[in-house]
Design goal:
499 residues; alpha/beta; 9-stranded mixed beta sheet; 4-stranded antiparallel beta sheet; 15% strand
Length: 499
């Protein structure tokens, strides 16, 4: 009898502690902006664009100063977030379907055209931990219906496609989800997020929202654009582009409405908010000849932009607020990267990482409460073997040192000490030849370990035609002389919907 009572008591205690564990599972909201540069918002030094809610999030949470995207363009970083892996392992090394320069010195490898269904995504890992999972916005990890987020662990999936302006975007495969008349894209995406939060407030949830903003073609509502045009005239600023500045403010509005919803539902203390970008900012389109309105923003003092492995292409803003662990107004300089989110969320959720899938990321839990700490990691690696805003390259960052190795047959390398040269202005590859050789060896060893796809010599190399861009889908040249850059950015459109 005593043994039976003890067993009953033990089972009751186990049930109670299990319920307590579930109740303590935090919610996760990952706001994943498209092409937002490291210094495009106020708390990272931008004194032109107005980002009060982003800045307030930083003031109330933890701001990372050495956070990196796992790729120089969107699909690789999105792959990293979903898989917890360096995208070179999966072969998604360019945006899907990628760029093509058929007469260059090397033939670049074809990117994997979709996130493999066998990959255990962060959505699936959290779903296994009893989370409701939601995905809103841009996906860009496969075009077919079978490769959408609803087949990758997300209970609610609204993949929004099309440009930013009213009447020009839609939810793929969901005719039941329609924007309101005159509604801007981030505003509609926010409506979907608010609805998801309210419907799942009584259970732990993971929501990833990935607006198409601030990606080109530029498009914003007139009232905001006019404000920044006047501001540019008053300050004599030529960058950022006024429409681009307005798009950043639209993202700030999105974050603000999400935070207000979390607060209104009483979820602030048990919700982790993560705000970041999928790659560095864009200065100018890669495939068009320069024109005044081609210029979008500047990454200065960082070198490079989206599509390159210099800091301007991969260093991104990252802000985390989770009241049980983060302290207001703290700053962390430890290098982090996009594939760290997966193990961080699973760690805090009390879930399990997939047994047969290598996870390259590290849980950021130690840094949340001790931002001056270090992660147990030897180095960060990038592999972008494609022509874009730069030549095909791989890179490694080991503490303060960063090596870029070009893969176009030139043998070129660049070595920088970021602690004293954030702008990568002084190439130390000759001055520090032994260090450069050591990092090159480590980079080559890593590429072998992940079976990274490499460029090969091009038998059709033609120096006179090497600069030609061809479209991967059509198999035809890109008409770089006559395409319009930013059609219908805001003229003649409604101002805003009163929010």
């Amino acid at each position: 009898m005593t043994r039976v009572l003890f067993l009953c008591a033990a089972l009751a205690w186990a049930g109670a502690t299990s319920g307590l564990a579930v109740a303590q599972q935090p919610n996760f909201i990952l706001v994943f902006v498209d092409d937002l540069g490291w210094n495009d918002v106020g708390c990272y030094g931008n004194d032109f664009v107005e980002t009060p809610r982003i800045d307030r999030l930083a003031a109330e949470g933890l701001r990372f100063t050495s956070a990196y995207a796992a790729g120089a363009v969107c699909s690789p970083t999105r792959c990293a977030v979903q898989s917890g892996q360096n995208p070179a392992r999966i072969g998604i090394t360019a945006h899907i379907p990628g760029h093509w320069r058929p007469f260059e010195r090397v033939i670049t490898p074809q990117t994997t055209m979709a996130l493999p269904l066998a990959t255990v995504t962060v959505g699936e890992a959290l779903k296994d931990a009893a989370y409701a999972t939601g995905y809103v916005g841009k996906w860009h990890l496969g075009r077919g219906a079978a490769f959408q987020p609803n087949h990758q662990g997300y209970d609610f999936a609204a993949v929004v496609a099309g440009p930013h302006l009213p009447g020009r975007f839609r939810v793929s495969g969901r005719p039941d989800l329609k924007p309101g008349r005159g509604q801007y894209r981030t505003e509609f995406e926010t409506d979907l997020c608010v609805d998801f939060i309210q419907k799942n407030k009584d259970r732990p949830f993971f929501l990833m929202v990935s607006p198409f903003a601030v990606h080109i073609p530029l498009g914003a509502m007139s009232q905001k654009v006019e404000k920044y045009r006047k501001k540019a005239t008053a300050t004599g600023r030529s960058l950022p582009h006024p429409v681009y500045a307005a798009m950043i403010e639209h993202c700030d509005d999105m974050l603000g409405r999400i935070l207000d919803t979390v607060e209104a539902e009483g979820l602030t203390q048990r919700t982790m908010i993560v705000f970041t970008s999928d790659n560095g900012g864009l200065h100018r389109r890669y495939d068009y000849r320069a024109r005044a309105d081609d210029e979008v923003t500047s990454m200065a003092p960082l070198k490079g932009e989206k599509g390159s492995l210099h800091e301007g292409g991969v260093r991104v803003p990252l802000i985390v607020k989770y009241p049980p662990l983060t302290r207001p107004g703290t700053v962390c300089s430890e290098p982090t990267i996009s594939y760290d989110f997966y193990p961080t969320f699973v760690d805090l959720a009390g879930g399990s990482l997939p047994a047969n899938q290598p996870i390259d990321g590290k849980s950021l839990r130690p840094l949340l409460s001790q931002p001056d700490g270090r992660l147990e990691r030897e180095a960060l690696y990038w592999h972008y073997p494609h022509y874009h805003h730069d030549r095909p390259a791989s890179s490694i960052r080991e503490r303060d040192w960063k090596l870029i190795e070009y893969l176009d047959g030139s043998g070129d390398m660049e070595l920088y000490r970021l602690a004293v040269d954030l702008g990568e202005t002084k190439n130390l590859v000759n001055e520090q030849s032994e260090r450069a050789a050591d990092l090159k060896s480590k980079l080559a060893k890593w590429r072998m370990e992940v079976i990274a796809r490499m460029p090969i010599p091009n038998p059709n190399h033609d120096p006179k035609r090497a600069s030609e861009w061809w479209n991967m889908r059509t198999g035809k040249p890109v008409p770089s002389d006559n395409r319009r850059r930013f059609p219908a950015t805001e003229k003649g459109l409604p101002k805003e919907n009163g929010r």
